[in-house]
Design a protein that fits this description.
Its cofactor is FMN. This is NAD(P)H-dependent oxidoreductase. Keywords: Flavoprotein, FMN, Signal. It holds the Pfam family FMN_red. This protein is α/β, with parallel strands linked by helices. The chain has a single domain (9-181), classed as Flavodoxin domain (Rossmann fold, 3-Layer(aba) Sandwich), CATH 3.40.50.360. Helices cover 41% and strands 17% of the residues. It contains 6 helices and 8 strands. The strands form 2 sheets. Strands 1, 2, 3, 6, 7 and 8 form a 6-stranded parallel β-sheet that branches. It has a two-stranded antiparallel sheet with strand order 4-5. The structure holds flavin mononucleotide. Flavin mononucleotide binds at residues 17, 19, 22-24, 82-86, 116, 118-119, 148.
Length: 182
């Protein structure tokens, strides 16, 4: 239980893209700006997570330990990942593989952001993986926003009336679900 008081939410946000101009990472930064004062969105990069090796699980690298600690401390998880060849990115899957055997992930409420309406395969596969890992997908908090092909960066997303409202609505649904589940 990490909420400082009843209505405070601490959320961990992961992007499946390492690209500097990533739409997925931009969406997470926009969400962090759009979040109300009682909702803290902590974006944690996955670029320093080494390739998963089960042999190293008992002596995990410091970046993995840090990720697990952030996950344990959060009330909910937000994931935004591109689709690569109909799957989630290796960056995201690799990070998730490190989290399979621990208890930090179990029952964690999850919001998914899909920044491309055509990217249905990766979302379906990501959902299957997250459910298999005993995460709690919050259906009302899943949002698809048409960023791919747009010119929108973080500030553009924040300023976009429809897209920013969709993000805020999903975030609100996630926080509602967290409240209900506690
Ligand atoms: C290696 C690679 C494979 C891709 N495969 C797909 C795909 O299968 N389906 C799709 O809709 N987009 C695909 N794309 C497009 C990306 O999903 C798109 O560029 C997305 O914006 C990348 O996310 P980012 O902006 O957060 O980096 C692919 C892009 C790359 C680089």
């Amino acid at each position: 239980m990490t909420r400082n008081h009843v209505n405070h939410f601490r959320l961990l946000a992961l992007s499946g893209s390492l690209r500097a101009a990533s739409f997925n990472t931009a969406a997470l930064h926009a969400l962090a700006q759009l979040a109300p004062d009682n909702v803290n969105v902590l974006i944690s990069g996955l670029g320093d997570i080494p390739l998963f090796n089960p042999d190293l699980e008992n002596s995990a690298p410091s970046s993995v330990i840090a990720l697990k600690e952030k996950l344990r401390a959060c009330d909910g998880l937000i994931i935004a990942s591109p689709e690569y060849a109909h799957g989630m990115t290796g960056v995201l899957k690799n990070a998730l593989d490190w989290l399979v055997s621990g208890d930090e992930f179990v029952d964690k409420p999850i919001m998914l952001i899909n920044t491309s309406p055509r990217a249905t395969h990766a979302q379906a596969s990501l959902k299957e993986v997250l459910i298999t890992m005993s995460g709690k997908l919050i259906e009302n908090a899943q949002v698809t926003i048409p960023l791919l092909g747009s010119q929108l960066d973080c500030q553009g997303i924040v300023a976009h009336v429809d897209i920013s409202q969709q993000l805020k609505t999903s975030l609100n649904e996630l926080c509602e679900a967290i409240t209900q589940l506690k």
